[in-house]
Amino acid sequence: TPKILGVVAVLPKIPTDDALKEDKEIEEIGMKIAMEFETSQGRKPIDVSAQNLGFDIRSESPDGTLRYIEVKARAREGKIALTPNEWLMAHRLGNEYWLYIITNATKNPELYTIQHPAAKLQPEEEVEVVRYIVSDWKNVANKEKINKE
């Protein structure tokens, strides 16, 4: 007869920092502001945010200069979070990578830009559990007899 050795409940991650909560509406406002800013500067922005490239906008100047822009929008002020892929692309693309941070997005938006953020920022690394390594499993396991033919 099988024995139940334990039960695991997998619960959704509870956001610990309200300031970092991603809000689709806020992000959409941020993207709109960034796209309009790029156009106002004579560049041709393309929204590539759905492609998970590590940036949200690919923008080209009339002279062919490219900007790869990651947009972070906040309802107020506060911290921003970059994914590992965004941070990797910030390093890889160097001066062509831009971070556009929109604060107070819903009321009185302000746009801050950082060229080559990988050279200018020192983010705190937040480690998330990716997998669990179990080495002492034999201490709690039942060894079963199997037919060896």
* Nearest-integer average pLDDT: 85
Helix fraction bin? 10-25%
What is the CATH T-level topology of the domain at 21-120?
Trna Endonuclease, Chain: A, domain 1
Shape: elongated
Report strand order across the widest sheet: 1-2-3-4-5
CATH-derived architecture of the domain at 21-120:
3-Layer(aba) Sandwich
Poorly predicted sequence stretches spanning 5 or more consecutive residues: 14-20
The main β sheet shows up as: 5 strands, mixed
Total DSSP E strands = 5
Strand share of the residues? 15-25%
If you had to describe this structure to a student in words, what would you say it looks like?
This protein is α+β, with helices and mostly antiparallel strands and 149 residues long. It has a domain at 21-120: Trna Endonuclease, Chain: A, domain 1. The protein contains 3 helices and 5 strands. It has helices spanning 24-40, 84-93, 117-120, and strands spanning 44-47, 57-60, 66-73, 97-103, 110-115. The chain has a 5-stranded mixed β-sheet, sandwiched between helices. A hairpin with a 6-residue loop joins strand 4 (97-103) and strand 5 (110-115). It is elongated, with a radius of gyration of 23 Å. The model is unreliable at 14-20 (pLDDT under 50). It holds the Pfam family NOV_C. This is DUF3883 domain-containing protein. InterPro entries: NOV_C.
Give a brief description.
The protein has a domain at 21-120: Trna Endonuclease, Chain: A, domain 1 (3-Layer(aba) Sandwich), CATH 3.40.1350.10. Helices cover 21% and strands 19% of the residues.
